[in-house]
Records
---
Amino acid sequence: MEKDTVEHLIKSLSERNIQGYYFESFNEAKLEIMKMISKHESVGIGNSVTLKRMELSNDLISRGNNVYDKTLAKNKEEIKEIKRKALLTDWYITGTNAISLEGHIVNMDHSGNRVAAMLYGPNNVVVVIGSNKITKTLDEAVYRVRNIASPKNAKRAGMNPPCVDLQKCIDCKSPDRVCNNLVVIEGQNESRRMKVFIVNEEEGF
Ligand code: SF4
């Protein structure tokens, strides 16, 4: 990742009351997250390929944190309960579907629990992004979310809307549609609430 790109993104985020930080690797980013969060604090985890590969939930649980990660639930009822409890945690850690160089954080959610927690509830939010999530503009970020992230996430969730075969969005009305909540975070009211960890590796959709 070019130094100019990182500096541009961190400046754009700062103008939106969001703190941006740069890391060479996901492992470095994870170590910083583990350092920032005390073992007495509760943590909600957004469903994310990036965070899964970082094994963040396992590490937090091992040292005693109370972690709400729906991917560790045993059944549908537990999934629902975890999604609700993760809305009132001390920390919420999540990936994102795209971020523009102008600092727009763009996500598409199926049920909306992840974007709900990003918007309001948890006291602190950390958004972890690989370099593959960065686009030049908001339009490109939305394009990425619809045509790259959503088809892959639909497949990962075992859904079969038309984009899984077509590898592009046709704005379907399929019962398997995963695109119910398109959310653009433009900024933060509280200046220390949201942090974006920009990682110089590619991961996730
Ligand atoms: S609206 Fe439908 S076709 Fe478009 S990305 Fe979402 S699920 Fe796929």
Note: The chain has one domain: 3-135+180-199.
---
Amino acid sequence: MAKQMKKAATSRVPAPGTTARGFQVMAIHVTEKRGRRAFEALRADRPASNTFALAESLPKNLDPESAAKRILAHAFASDAMPTLVDDEASSFRSLGVETVPLTGTTIVKFRQQIRGIPVFASLVSVELDDDNELVSLNSSLAKPDLASYVASISPLDALKRIADLAGYGRQLPDGVPTLNLFLDHGGKWRLAYIVEDVRSRTKGKASPAQHQIPLVHDYVIDARSGALVAELPRTPALRHGTASAPDDLGNMQTFNIEMKDGKRVMRDARLNIETYDLRYRDPLDGTLPGKLVKHPWSPAAVSAHTHAAVVTTYLRKVLKRNNIDNMGGRVVSTVKCVVEQFERPPGSKVWLNALWDGKQMLYGQDLFNGRLRSMASSLSVVAHELFHGVTGGTARLIYLGESGALNESYSDIFGTLIANSKQPDIGKWHWQVGCGMAVRDMQNPTQDNQPKLMKDFVQLPLTLNHDLGGVHLNSGIHNYAAFNIMTANDGRKFIFTPKELAAMFYIALTQQLSRQSTFADSRRAVVLATRSLFRNLPQTQIDIRVAAVKAGFAAAGIR
Ligand SMILES: [Zn+2]
């Protein structure tokens, strides 16, 4: 049945919101009245549609991916869902199917394509129950207005341009340029080649005022003019990383090792964790990951190894995630790194940083009581940084501006959840994230000069000198919303358990967010995740939990 635009006026589903970045967003869930009605109307409309004309094409007779594809095609064509973007040039490419053990649902993600070209950062998440019927539908779609969809430079030209920018000279970086429709930060749509995960070979790009070294970037090259559109940093780095948290290096730890060529090495085969030592060399010299740590064990390596094990075990047990990449892949840490450019004072081996470089963990060290102490000694720092790896492999939130602040906040949320995971009473949790002087406080962001309300969002240039648009600054707003949700209570007890909180934020991040998501997108995502997690409870119980989430975001001014 063709969509009649005049029906939009009597729509059962409210018009979708349009975000500032030019995407139309819409989210509905079966636990809401309007969602239930819309999904029922869609089912009632099936006999009239070509998509579901045959019994064998009904969702329960298909695999989840085929079912989701048909449900989406039908929803776009049907009168029952008049508010989805109705664009005949659009098609949808599956990004894969994921079963979510935490909710017992299956989520199929799609990317919007126009004339076969993917729309960067677009996302449709179709959540299905056991019968492959809709649990929720969340879409973020665009209508790019390009004059031409034909590239005038070749993929090879784009790679050469990137080789030049990233310091490769005549060599070409690894990676395949893919055409995308990309909305630049000026709000202009571009036909662009994107090459992901290009490791930089230029030294000294970062300003000395920062302890940051973006090692890996995604490059966006205009496919018409060859101009650089964006250089998207993939290096979330900890700022002001001064460690003076309780020193755990003196504590005895038990960890898994392996025998290799008759020697004991720091490899945990069960969790697939490996820990390396760079012996105070510069990771920019191309020596990563360094030497696999052998017995006798250095205290820095013990900290990195045992903390990586705590985080990996949490991922597996609480989030049902199989390591950072969810495929059981290696979790690699390197201790004793010194980026010479930021060594303070020169020759001291002090490099105040810990970071996920897009592929592995790097740890520097500070000076504590006259002794070098690894940044790996703080569990909240390790968890924060490793979670950048989870984000990088899922929502892949661009590390600039609002999406960058959201990336930071999700790392703070899981840094907090993991560092407090041995304390079941949320009332006794610590809300400071980082090490030493509390670098960020989720409860009182303003204490560390972060804003905590949306109206105080700080607009900064998207440059290194301005913290890539204030990613460590504006994260305070989303952190505060998360704090409100984590501590939401009915006057007698907390509304959510730590495990439920972890599941809500994890599902929101990994299933409902995309590269340019905003705080408002996160609000929608956490609400959907909450509805799915508790969908089998009585409606009043669902409503209490959804209200707590909405109130948490509202208190930070995120709507
Ligand atoms: Zn970070």
Note: The CA atoms of residues 94 and 110 lie 4 Å apart.
---
Amino acid sequence: MIEVDSDNDTLCYCAGTTRQQIKKLLDDGIVDVDRISRITGAASGCGGCEFELQQLIEEHG
Ligand code: FES
């Protein structure tokens, strides 16, 4: 299933972290991959979402 709402779709399938959760942290000034990972669990499993997480952070910058 492909989610169309890009703000609500899952970024990390291991932790079930959504892009919206990540963006909220970015808006709060948390722009560090390790911190985001510790808070949301994103990129702490298979690592498959790490590249996309990095991209989100860069886009935000
Ligand atoms: S999908 Fe994010 S760590 Fe596996």
Note: Residues 12-15, 42-49 surround FE2/S2 (inorganic) cluster (CB under 6 Å).
---
Amino acid sequence: MAESVIDVFDRLSGCYDDVLPFFSGFGRLVAERLPEPGPAGRLLDIGAGRGAIAVPARERGYDVTATDAAPGMVARLRQEQPGLDVRLMNAVHLDFPDDSFDVVTAGLVMHLVDDAAAVVREVHRVLKPGGLFAFTVPGREPDGFEFADGANALFGEFARYLPPQGGMGVAFDEIGTLAEAGFDPLRETDLRLDLPLADAETLWRWFQTHGSRKYLDDLPPDRRDEFRRRLLDDLGGRRPLTLRRYVWLHEAQVTRP
Ligand SMILES: C[S@@+](CC[C@H](N)C(=O)[O-])C[C@H]1O[C@@H](n2cnc3c(N)ncnc32)[C@H](O)[C@@H]1O
């Protein structure tokens, strides 16, 4: 049976975001854009991982609750952030009363959950009227954009060698799903992160520390070796090497009275 997304992140929790500050980098960009917290601004971060958003949101003054469905992630976050309220929880069933939070965040999670619409309904329920849902999904590349590395082209090319259910993550209609749950979609913003890479091998190691690991593990071994060889050959001579990625930040507000 295919390994579930939660099991993958549980397995990767010991190395997640260790090689490059990718998720923590995007998490800071999201946290910076949140509104000023009110006197008792309560923020729920779902699929919190190692606290990419939860930690800087707390630094900004929010009263943060971080949740994740992978026990390993929860254990690591508790260990690294002893003062943070961290709970093991699947985002499909949020164990909080209605109208509990001013802000809910979800960094690069919504495209991974089994039922994004169900999660959006739960988020809507636990937000106070006027509350904000801010979440990121992997970005669409703006027109004319070229990847600073050739890896995305390889991911596209090798997808045909994946078994059914291979890899992870599905796009969904974010705006339609928000509107259906009763949100007023406010804004879509593309966020960009450039991270210098010491060498091509660093990029390969980075792929082992998050969701792309499942894609690579799901390839037949000879194709995986070929992917690695092509990546290293392609990038080996290029200097400087930069990992440039985009995510889309969606912000939406609860409209119920
Ligand atoms: C790509 S990571 C993002 C983590 C963090 N938000 C960040 O930006 O680094 C996805 C996280 O979502 C969690 N996750 C996946 N499915 C989930 C679900 N149904 N409910 C709660 N967490 C989930 C995983 O365990 C993992 O920690």
Note: The two ends are 45 Å apart (CA to CA).
